[in-house]
Amino acid sequence: MHYYQEMARVKLFRISISLAAIFFLLLSSVATSQSASVNGTVCSKIGDQRLEIRSLYTCTKVGTKLLWRFTDDNTSELVPFPLSGPSWLEIAREREEIERAISELRAKEAAEQKAKLDAEIAAAALKARQEAEARAAKAEAEKPKIQGLTIGKLLWGDDFKGDKGSLINSQNWSARNCHRVPVSLGGGACFDAEVVYYAPSAIALDGSEDGAAVISTNRISGALPADAGKCLTNYCGFVSGRFDTHGKVAFQYGFIEARIKMPKGSGNHPAFWMLGDNINQVGWPTSGEMDITEIRGNEPTIATSATHYSTSYAPNNCCSNHQYKVASLRVGVDVTDGFHTYAVAWLPNSISYYVDGRLISTTTPQTLGGHWSFNDKFFLILNNAVSASFSGPWNNLFSSSMTIDWVRSYQLNGQGQVFIK
Predict the structure, then answer these.
(1) Residues 6+ apart with CB under 8 A from 286
(2) Closest C-alpha among 414, 413, 410 to residue 144
(3) In terms of Cα–Cα distance, which of 175, 333, 325 is closest to 240?
(4) List of residues 6+ apart from 178 with CB closer than 8 A
(5) At CA 48, angle to CA 42 and CA 53, rounded to 5?
(6) What is the 3-state secondary structure (H, E, C) of 375-399?
(7) What is the C-alpha to C-alpha distance for residues 239 and 246, in angstroms, rounded to an integer?
(8) How does DSSP assign 237-302, residue by residue?
(9) Residue 31: pLDDT over 50
(10) Within 10 A of 367 (CB to CB), how many other CB atoms are there?
């Protein structure tokens, strides 16, 4: 490329010199012509001198007339140097060669640029395809595989990816305070003796590559966070977090699973659970409640699940009509030491709870013995309470973390819908 550029510059220089020489010859020719036209013309006063271009003329009496005559002032030798150069045809041909060289150079540069762009596009397409294949392989590898269940395509999920300390996705979740009676949306309704203030600021993303949401539970040692809710018991010694999908995402049937590392320490009462999406209309327990998992902080090797229901259809009536079916499974390891999966396999007239793909229990209308409200839409909740009555004394608890890696909803046996509002 540099060679072509240098050749073009040399040829342009040669053309410039040639054009200058021709211009000078033309100028000299004009000067000679002008000088010839002055010599012998009439003048008015003897001795006057006149300089035309590079020739000196003196007014001289010739016979009876006064005429301009060329006067040699010893500059006649100072004529232009002999000129020689290409003809107009040669100049035109050189110009064509230069234009052709420039055109070839531009074509070469354009071809190189196109090749570079094509390579970049191909590399980007390859990278995108490889990333898509990697995601598909990862999704397939992570898809639950449980004997007797046909778990289909992923319907919805949240991997909680984002910058460290940033908020959870507000399109999916609402971070809640706690209140006793459902108002506006029922996701923040609390029904237990929890010694915590719930504050949205206790929930944040961890910023890891794979993503996770963290609920931090801390003993109060100073002023409460500005966003803390009310204390609904006689005493609240902790601040913790709670969030749900009510009013944003609802579910009806499917295989719904979360991967969670549970908080360590007696007194912690973490839960991954669901409430009927119609709780604001019919109240609890008529809305129904599915506790996919609850962990007792003082028994961290046991996973507990429960189904809460009303003994009859009794909208906005609580709580003599409240009953529940509870079951537990010894996991064999401390679930606060690492991540485990907790799931519900939910079909019409059937609810089954799992931990790490192992069945905890199955509930049907026949085994429930009350109002079956579980063929309607439900929403998800994740929280960590502190409750001595459920999870043992909290005297030695000062801080803990509940880490949610992801939450996902799959089709199950061809069933399952997700409603995004």
Answers:
(1) 276, 310, 313, 314, 315, 316, 317, 321, 371, 373
(2) 410
(3) 175
(4) 188, 189, 190, 194, 196, 197, 198, 229, 230, 232, 242
(5) 80
(6) CCCEEEEEEEEECHHHHCCCCCCCE
(7) 22
(8) -EEE-EEE-TTTEEEESEEEEEEEEPPPSTTEEEEEEEEETTHHHH-TTTT-EEEEEE--TT-TTE
(9) no
(10) 12
pLDDT 10s digits, 385-417:
999 999 999 999 999 999 999 999 999 999 999
302, 201 contact by CB (below 8 A): no
Taking the CA atoms of residue 182, residue 188, residue 194 and residue 196 in that order, the dihedral angle to the nearest 10 degrees is: -130
Tens digit of pLDDT for each residue in 325-334? 999 999 999 9
Please list, in sequence order, all residues whose beta carbon lies within 8 angstroms of the beta carbon of residue 76, skipping any fewer than 6 positions away. Answer: none
Model confidence pLDDT, tens digit, residues 252-310: 999 999 999 999 999 999 999 999 999 999 999 999 999 999 999 999 999 999 999 99
Residue labelled with tokens 């009509």: 321
Structure tokens at 395: 């005297």
Main-chain phi, psi angles of 399, to 5 degrees: -160, 155
Contacts of the segment 7-11: beta carbons below 8 A, 24+ positions apart? 7/101, 8/98, 8/101, 8/102, 8/105, 11/94, 11/97, 11/98, 11/101
Output the pLDDT for position 87.
Answer: 76
